[in-house]
Amino acid sequence: MDKYRSKNNIYLSIYLSIYLSIYLSIYLIYHHSVELNWADSLLEYKYTMLTSSEKVYTCIQKLVPEEDDTWLTVYTGYGESAVVNDLKPNTEYIFRLRFQRSETSFSEWCDPLKVVTEKEPLYGDNLHKAIRLKDLAEIESILKSGIQRLLLSYNANIGFKDDSGKTPIFSLSIYLFISFCSYLSIYLSIYLSIYLSISARSYLAQYVHIFVSIYILLFICICLFIYIIPMYSYLSIYLSIFLSIYLSQFVHVYLSISISISSTHGNRQVALTLLRCGANINAKDHDGKTSLMVAVINGHQQMLELLLEYNVDLSVVNANMVKLLENAMVKNGIRYY
């Protein structure tokens, strides 16, 4: 009789192990780890397969495609959940699970569970580095990731300076990435309209210091005039027009700095916006060069044509620059009538 009962118990165990629902579920996913949970399956297995005195432990394996699709054990224990670490971000992994009563007594493997880790988060340092290296592909990737919304949603300091003292929008103004700065301009316009009259203007009135003046006012003119494109936001345009009139007594002089930057890089769209906002087309930099000279020396014919359309003064050159100007025009095949 005992032998017959033991044989029936074996058949019952085989039957239950076949139809028992063993599965692995995801609890949390990060970019370098994933937390797996099997509490429900373990409870069902204990209730169905084990006596009160028996214990069961869990074995979890990970598929390793790089090693001929072998399975690597990543967890063995008596818990109901586990965290698998040292994973790569934005990568698919496959896990499987089984319960074991001993080295020779265990359940079937559950159905493989596919898990894709999250993308590694981007921070402001990534943007600074990509801009400095002029890595257009990386900048495009950062912009598509929505980093600007993420940073601003966590009250990121838009005026944060890197090791060389440049803010993100200042660096962007040099390399002319308009799509990103047009987004920031909305926040910058609102920010400046609230705080400028309290902080920056009072500071400039009390401490006339050229270094601070250039950085604050260049920051303002970049925000207001360079990166507001008509198709982006009418609200941003209206705010910028109002602020540009209110602050015209401060920023008019510093538009010449931005027009010089535009001439250096040959960006006609930015230069046209600056000229329409009243930039001094004939202003000189500290080396005595005008925007016309910079455009000619760098061989930007479209920029030269634009400056000529706005009646740039061809006589505003110093004695040392006349010959250089003429030679540069001949060298680059640029002519004017």
From TrEMBL:
Species this protein is from: Acanthosepion pharaonis
Statement: the UniProt record of this protein carries the keyword Transmembrane: yes
Pfam families: Ank_2
Name of the featured protein: Uncharacterized protein
ANK repeat placement: 287-319
Residue intervals passing through the bilayer: 12-30, 174-196, 208-229, 235-255
InterPro entries (UniProt xref): Ankyrin_rpt (IPR002110), Ankyrin_rpt-contain_sf (IPR036770), FN3_dom (IPR003961), FN3_sf (IPR036116), Ig-like_fold (IPR013783)
Gene3D superfamilies tied to this protein: Ankyrin repeat-containing domain (1.25.40.20), Immunoglobulins (2.60.40.10)
GO biological process: regulation of apoptotic process
